[in-house]
Amino acid sequence: MHYVKAKGILSSQNGMNLYRGCVHGCIYCDSRSRCYQMDHDFEDVEIKENALALLEDALRRRRKPCMIGTGGMSDPYMPLEEKLGYVRGAMELALRYGFGFTVQTKSARILRDLDLIRELNERTKCVVQMTLTTCDEALCRKLEPNVSTTRERVEALLRLREAGVPTVVWLCPVLPFINDSAENISGILDYCIEAGVYGIISFSMGMTLREGNREYYYAQLDRHFPGLKERYIRTYGDRYEVVSPNSRPLTDLFLRKCEENGIVHDRDEVFAYLHTFEEKQSQLSLFGE
Questions:
Q1: From CA 202, how far away is CA 247, in angstroms rounded?
Q2: Claim: this prediction has a pTM higher than 0.85
């Protein structure tokens, strides 16, 4: 890992990357794509040493509170977070200044901050987003080798449910010829139903491949699924959007189980929920009820 001084921290959509790069080793990671212009090895994680100071300054200047998010480009709950505590520090700032918070991860390490997450959600709003790709633990270790297994993530979702914290699951990517079976998608949905998630985000039952992440993904296919790279090349060429041949029946299964169990599945509706700040009654004017 290495340190840099950042010039800013919040995007126009109030998202932030406390770290750039990742050590979780997910074989499909789009953040490896060259279009993001990362000028260091992906596993050599860049740490914005002044991130929390920049965030505090930004929150202090805001006239109205809003939702603050992290985790879109790099999983914020890598092992180094245990030592550095940048995510926890960001949550503390959100709590201090009355902002909402949402974080996306694949790690059960998030439970370390359950006390803050619960308090944030009681004061304003805090949503945890968790990625689930397979209900097969052995396959999970191939696809996402250095992070919590699916069952560990589900246990975290259950703990969050017990704490009254809303959750959203990213059911993606769906990798053609690997995890694009009805059994797998149904198994993930059963986990989501068990955990009482608010919503699920899904993108056409497929994945994306572009320069940078394609080469890494194909190297991992050669390692774990010999011969499958050639099938990808024959089927998809150099397409950016790589959709499963089973997309239609898997999407029908997804929609049916979500609707039967009251899980929000419209992407726009889920994203609107994640971006909508909700001020709780305890935070309203003293002249209120």
A1: 11
A2: yes
| Full 3-state SS string of 40-92 | CCCCCCEEECCHHHHHHHHHHHCCCCCEEEECCCCCCCCCHHHHHCHHHHHHH
Tokens of 42: 């992906």
pLDDT for the residue 281: 53
Q: With bands split at pLDDT 50, 70 and 90, how would you rate the model's confidence at 155?
A: very high
Three state DSSP letters for 252-285: HHHHHHHHHCCCECCHHHHHHHHHCCCCCHHHCC
Q: How far is CA 112 from CA 13, 109, 277, in A?
A: 27, 6, 24
CA 88 – CA 74 distance, rounded (Å): 16
Does the pLDDT value for residue 287 go beyond 70?
Answer: no
Amino acid in the structure at residue 186: S
